[in-house]
Amino acid sequence: MKYKIIFSKTAEDDLREIALYIVEHSNNVDLAINFVNGIRETCKILEDFPECGSVPQDRILVCNGYRFLVYGNYLVFYVHKVEDDSVFILSVVNSKQDYLRVIKRFI
After folding, report:
1. Kind of pairing, strands 4-7 and 86-94?
2. What string of pLDDT tens digits covers the 107 residues of the chain?
3. What is the pTM of this model?
4. Which stretches of 1-107 are DSSP H helices?
5. What CATH architecture is 4-104?
6. Can you give the residue ranges of every domain in the chain?
7. With 0-12 CB in 10 A as exposed, 13-18 as middle and 19+ as buried, what is 2?
8. Residue 16 per-residue DSSP state
C-alpha cells in the first residue's frame, strides 16, 4: 500500500525559505533546487514506510504521533494518519535551532 504524502503550507513555506537562504548565501539556484528536491525525495520513503522515521525524545511530541526524518542539518517532522492512508509533513526545521518550540506550535 502506498501512503499519500501531503506537505502542509508551513512545510512548503519552510522549503521555500531554505531555498532562498541557500541562494542568498551561495548565489547558486541549482544548489538550492537540488537541496529542496533532496528533502522531497527523502520524504518519498514514507509512501511505503510511514513509520520509518525516528521518534522524538520529547514526550508531548511522542504522544501526538510525531516522527521525523533527517536530511543534512534539517529535520522533517511528520504525522502518519493511518485512517487517512496519509503522511502529513508538518515542518522542515534546521536541527541547530530550537526546533521543539517550532514544532510544538502544531499541537
Report:
1. parallel
2. 899 999 999 999 999 999 999 999 999 999 999 999 999 999 999 999 999 999 999 998 999 999 999 999 999 999 999 889 999 999 999 988 887 777 777 77
3. 0.92
4. 9-26, 29-43, 59-63, 99-104
5. 2-Layer Sandwich (3.30)
6. 4-104
7. exposed
8. H
